Amino acid sequence: LKERDARLKERDARLKERDARLKEQDARLKEQDARLKEQDSQLREQSSQMEEMAGLIAQLQEQMSLLQRNIDPS
Q1: In angstroms, how far apart are the furthest CA atoms of the chain?
Q2: Helix (H, G, I), strand (E, B), or coil: what is residue 74?
């Protein structure tokens, strides 16, 4: 009985250690998930800004083309 009790205590200790490791891993994964979500948000914002800049560049190129035609109507 004492031997069985000792084995159960060892098993319980191992399970507690495993549980602690899993909780630490879960916390790290949650932190990583939060960082990735923040990065995703930043990348989406940058993408939106780049699309806006591309539109502005296209408008500028069109205006420059019109100006060039007005300066040099040949």
Answers
A1: 106
A2: coil
Q: Which amino acid is residue 15, in one-letter code?
A: L
**What average pLDDT does the segment 5-9 reach?**
96
pTM higher than 0.70, yes or no?
A: no
∠ CA 41-35-53 to the nearest 5 degrees?
A: 25
Residue 4: how many other CB atoms lie within 10 Å: 8
Q: Could you give the number of structural domains in the chain? A: 1
Distance CA 5, CA 41 (A): 53
Its domain, for residue 36, covers 1-74
